[in-house]
């Protein structure tokens, strides 16, 4: 079975769906509420497992009721967890998410991994060597750098989810095969992502842009991948899903461009569904993954 190691943030996402975003000092009643595990690497791992891979998440989960929720949700969706907090003293970050019903646009407030110190598990080298692909989101810098270093030594391809700049990425990019950025990503000087990132070492750089075509650059060329036309119902974690599907394509031996096309198809399917997990039960998922249309 295709195997992926996902290293990064695990949160508890409390998602409220509203007719409109509330203004200052305003209270509104939501149309729907969902609670699930979240975080870039976590959602990518769930996607990888949904496509038929064996996904392992290395993160800080810790103990307490919120940690139990994360573990339970991930177990339900076929993701194995390796917890870097063996003492169980940490608690997952809580993310407050608002999704506007008419547009599917989301806003997020979260502590992420701020102030969390971790130890690198002894089994990380073995996990990276046994995986067909390693994805990092940079939210636990020590884990991210250790994971990409171990993967590089083992010859395992590394995919970086570059949603926002983190200082550790300066050390991670040279060891990565692929860097996929959001359109909001900016380098420390304010420069947007583009082919210049190839100078840091990756073989391919891509920039996702929601409903607009995904752009990519490699040392052999460049191009775009258009997104299928869909009615966006919920854009929460769409980028995470794209990264997880790309990692699955790489692990299955697809070319970088083939994997990008797979990633765009799966992410487009996801945004057509309300809620963080409802898309996983869409019977069209595996058809889309094999190259069909939604």
Automatic annotation (TrEMBL):
One of its GO terms (molecular function) is kinase activity. InterPro entries: Ketohexokinase-related (IPR052562), PfkB_dom (IPR011611), Ribokinase-like (IPR029056). Transmembrane segments: none annotated. SUPFAM superfamilies: Ribokinase-like. It holds the Pfam family PfkB. Keywords: Kinase, Transferase. Residues 5-278 form the Carbohydrate kinase PfkB domain. This is Sugar/nucleoside kinase (Ribokinase family). It comes from Georgenia muralis.
